[in-house]
Amino acid sequence: MRTLAATPGFTAAAIVCLALGIGGTTAIFSVVHAVLLRPLGYRAPDRLVRLYTEFPKISERGTAAILDLAAGI
Q1: pLDDT of 17
Q2: 7 φ, ψ to 5°?
Q3: Phi, psi torsion values for 35, nearest 5 degrees
Q4: What is the distance between the alpha carbons of residues 73 and 65, in angstroms, rounded to a whole number?
Q5: Which residues, 6 or more positions from 59, have their beta carbon under 8 angstroms from its beta carbon?
Q6: Which 8-state DSSP code applies to residue 51?
Q7: Per-residue pLDDT tens digits for 8-45
Q8: What confidence score (pLDDT) does residue 52 get?
Q9: Ramachandran region of residue 50, left (φ > 0), alpha (ψ -120 to 50) or beta?
Q10: 48-60, pLDDT tens digit by residue?
Q11: Distance, CA of 56 to CA of 60 (rounded, Å)
Q12: DSSP structure class, residue 64
């Protein structure tokens, strides 16, 4: 305790470092809890499905060729 009282600059730096560390840890945990740990707000979250569409490949000219579309490439 005497060392902390004798060097107020070091004491202030230590308190600021502790405050930033605790605040950062709390913020990261809050985000992880909200995004990953809390269950989804649906009755059956295990039955959710993701739908998406695949677009055909585009040739070097920037357009899809009719033969590519017909072949399903």
Answers
A1: 97
A2: -125, 85
A3: -95, -40
A4: 10
A5: 65, 68
A6: -
A7: 999 999 999 999 999 999 999 999 998 888 877 778 87
A8: 79
A9: beta
A10: 888 877 766 665 6
A11: 13
A12: -
Tokens of 36: 């990953």
Rg of the chain over CA atoms, in angstroms?
28
DSSP string for 21-38: HHHHHHHHHHHHIIIIIS
- The amino acid present at 12, given as its one-letter code, is A
Higher pLDDT, 25 or 65: 25
Q: Decide: 50 and 56 in contact? Cβ < 8 Å.
A: no
C-alpha atoms less than 13 angstroms from C-alpha of 27 in its C-beta half-sphere = 6
Residue whose entry in the numeric block shows the structure tokens 């005497």: 2
pTM metric for this prediction: 0.51
